[in-house]
Amino acid sequence: MSDTLHPRDTKDVEAAVQWALANKKSLEVVGHGTKRSLGRPAQFDATLDLAAIAGVTLYEPEELVLSARAGTPLAEIEALLEPKGQQLAFEPMDYGPLLGAPPRQATVGGVLAANLSGPRRIRAGAARDHFLGFLAVSGRGEVFKSGGRVVKNVTGYDLCKLMAGSWGTLAVMSEVTIKTLPRPETEASVLVLGLDALRAADAMAAAMGSSCDVSGAAHLSADLAVRASGDRAVGQSVTALRVEGVAPSVMRRKATLQDLLKPFGTLMALEPAPSAALWAAIRDVAPFAADGPAGQRIVWRLSTAPKQGAAAARMIAQQSDAEFLFDWAGGLVWAALAPTDDAGAATVRAAIAACGGHATLVRAPAAVRAAVPVFEPEPSGLAALTRRVKDGFDPQGVLGPGRMWAGV
């Protein structure tokens, strides 16, 4: 069993990495461990647990900026923002329930390291677009910082974009700075009932191309709609479109959406509370959660062009027993597949090769994740660049070696 190190500040992190370098050890970097089972099950000599490096260090609501230590729970940050009428606009998902961990345990450092974004990404951008700066320790054992407290920062390289999505394999972030934005006064959703995935893609494209400023566009089969909303009265597939903002604007845009979508089928409208509950379920992929009816299924996350999502799902469904949840107007496809020896990797990768994009194996037994590439295999040129970046930040492979790709 590997040792667990519990640093309390950046100096402790620096000392831990320098110890690993001196003793040729490797480190697994975790916050509260909600995403620990996502990635290749590589072997590490010690775990660097950042949970004690927590707390908000700066919050200036008027400047729309917040700094926090990396182990700060996201729930704590959201609770701080709420009284000020602000939010994290990228609406980060909670991987915990999907991967069998408790809900609302994610940390701000983990969210940024994984570049998590929810349904509002189609309007507000990804986590990386709200990431202003950080303090970190590289795999060389050196403390460095990048960015600052403003959006327009032109000094040096934009390393925030590099750290977002690196899964702790390049550096250990100890403090981060993010942009906050005003929270919408209210929201509403328009539901189109009974569409298949291809027709739903057309409806979502029409909504996204309108002047309604849609902040969420998703499609669920009839069974998934029941599991997401708990409302068995629906009984049909649901294509959901969300609008947010001040009340008069939301009412007007909802009416415009309803007129636009009438030709597609039967419509329903959701008021703020049920709308928020539905989008929280979509954000966290609640129908595929580990303790739900599909708990034993393999789960893939596919990112493709919005109009290609339904086509990719259709190709997979022809070869596998699968369920699909479409987000980002069809550009994000969550696929739950029956367990197989290769987790359906050949089928999924073939669909992505045909439709474009990339796929990540999110939930599968460790033995499967060891045998099947979890993250999208990279072309030789990109793989060489990835290795050069890794060597630049972590030449001895101290931080999470092999978590994303074998040998990296």
The share of residues in helices is: 25-40%
The domain count comes to 3
Major sheet, described briefly?
8 strands, antiparallel
Number of helices: 13
Structure class: alpha+beta
Taken from the alpha-carbon principal axes, the silhouette is globular
> Could you say what the CATH architecture of the largest domain is?
2-Layer Sandwich
> Strands of the biggest beta sheet: in what spatial order?
14-11-13-12-16-17-15-18
Ranges where pLDDT stays below 50 over 5 or more residues in a row are none
CATH-defined fold name of the largest domain? Uridine Diphospho-n-acetylenolpyruvylglucosamine Reductase, domain 3
CATH class of the largest domain: Alpha Beta
Gyration radius, rounded: 21 Å
N- to C-terminal separation? 23 Å
Mean pLDDT: 94
Proportion of strand residues: 15-25%
**Overall number of strands:** 18
Give structural attributes.
3 domains; 18 strands; alpha+beta; Alpha-Beta Plaits; 408 residues; five-stranded antiparallel sheet; globular; Uridine Diphospho-n-acetylenolpyruvylglucosamine Reductase, domain 3; eight-stranded antiparallel sheet; 31% helix
Task: Describe the protein's architecture and organization.
With 408 residues, the chain is an alpha+beta fold. The protein is built from 13 helices and 18 strands. Strands 14-11-13-12-16-17-15-18 form an 8-stranded antiparallel beta sheet, sandwiched between helices. Strands 4-5-9-7-8 form a 5-stranded antiparallel beta sheet. Helix 10 (309-319) runs antiparallel to helix 11 (345-355).
